[in-house]
């Protein structure tokens, strides 16, 4: 009698290189505390932050991403966290309006860059921190609130983009932005796949995530604390914190290729891979920044 081989489930993971915006952390420092990771008494090493950030930019280049740069501004030490600079979908940039005054001027700085690249810019009238709290999955925007973005911005994003917006309430101060608690692994319609930390959400939001994404990867507390969920996926490669070991194994089981990056210096500011990365979706290819990555 012959045994019938049971085929492994086909994962069909496919890499689609992204177009992203990054900001070199040459002015990075922790001089104020607006999240529990930040402690101005702990010294930062800016040269090390730049080197770690460069390794992330190099990783993206190796994956074939188009990496664009915005000039850092002296006096804006958190500007490296480009994800917060806006939310760009279908060539339209919805601008950021920061919750804390220390980051306020970043909104207009990013808006100027969007305009210089010919993107359609829609000025926000509600407090929101861009892709820190807005994650696109299929044609649905998962939108975080509770610490930074005001839920009034969720309605504004729905109106500006015409997309379905699902509000999710964050309840743990360490996971103050949605992109610290939830990663989009596959955004393709019909194949949506995410990973998240259940305890970061209130009961209703967790129930909504379970209903929509029954096959989601649930990560451990340790991997979330290493900022493993602060990840960028091209659908096959998942660029994430090198220290999120168990998450790497979970990703492999699901057919992804984890790519570990060490951003320990930027974690002193409460940021990781995704925080340093703003996705530019559907934009006409912006001009390459004169300075080489
Ligand atoms: N220090 C920054 C802040 O507290 C970190 C932002 C991290 N960005 C992100 N997309 N999660 O605002």
Present as ligands are:
arginine
Overall strand count: 15
Described by strand count, sense and barrel closure, the largest sheet is: 3 strands, mixed
Structural class: alpha/beta
Q: Reading side by side through the largest sheet, how are the strands ordered?
A: 2-1-15
Number of helices: 7
CATH superfamily: L-arginine/glycine Amidinotransferase, Chain A
Number of domains: 1
Structure explained in plain terms:
The chain has 293 residues and is an alpha/beta fold. It has one domain: L-arginine/glycine Amidinotransferase, Chain A (5-stranded Propeller), CATH 3.75.10.10. It contains seven helices and 15 strands. The strands form five sheets. A three-stranded mixed β-sheet has the order 2-1-15, covered by helices on one side. Strands 3-4-5 form a three-stranded mixed β-sheet, with helices on both faces. Strands 6-7-8 form a three-stranded mixed β-sheet, with helices on both faces. The radius of gyration is 18 Å and the shape is globular. It starts with 18 loop residues before the first strand and ends in a 14-residue tail after the last strand. The protein binds arginine. Arginine binds next to loops.
């Amino acid at each position: 009698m012959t045994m019938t081989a049971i085929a492994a489930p086909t994962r069909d993971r496919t890499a689609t290189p992204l177009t992203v915006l990054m900001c070199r952390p040459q002015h990075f420092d922790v001089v104020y505390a607006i999240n529990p990771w930040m402690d101005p008494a702990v010294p930062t090493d800016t040269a090390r932050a730049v080197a770690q950030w460069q390794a992330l930019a190099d990783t993206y280049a190796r994956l074939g991403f188009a990496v664009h740069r915005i000039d850092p501004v002296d006096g804006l030490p958190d500007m490296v966290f480009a994800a917060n600079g806006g939310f760009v979908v279908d060539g339209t940039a919805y601008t950021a309006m920061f919750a804390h005054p220390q980051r306020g001027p970043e909104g207009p700085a990013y808006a100027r860059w969007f305009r210089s690249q010919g993107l359609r810019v829609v000025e926000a009238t509600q407090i929101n921190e861009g892709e820190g709290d807005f994650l696109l999955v299929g044609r649905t925007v998962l939108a975080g609130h509770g610490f930074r973005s005001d839920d009034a911005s969720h309605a504004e994003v729905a109106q500006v983009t015409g997309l379905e917006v699902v509000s999710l309430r964050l309840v743990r101060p360490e996971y103050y932005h949605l992109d610290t608690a939830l990663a989009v692994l596959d955004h393709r319609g019909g194949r949506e796949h995410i990973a998240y930390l259940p305890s970061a959400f209130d009961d209703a939001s967790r129930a909504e995530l379970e209903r929509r994404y029954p096959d989601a990867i649930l990560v451990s507390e340790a991997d979330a604390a290493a900022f493993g969920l602060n990840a960028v996926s091209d659908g096959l490669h998942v660029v994430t914190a090198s220290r999120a070991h168990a998450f790497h194994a979970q990703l492999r089981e699901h057919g992804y290729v984890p790519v570990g990056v060490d951003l320990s210096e930027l974690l002193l500011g409460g940021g990781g891979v995704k925080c340093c990365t703003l996705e530019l979706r559907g934009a006409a290819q912006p001009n390459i920044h004169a300075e080489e990555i």
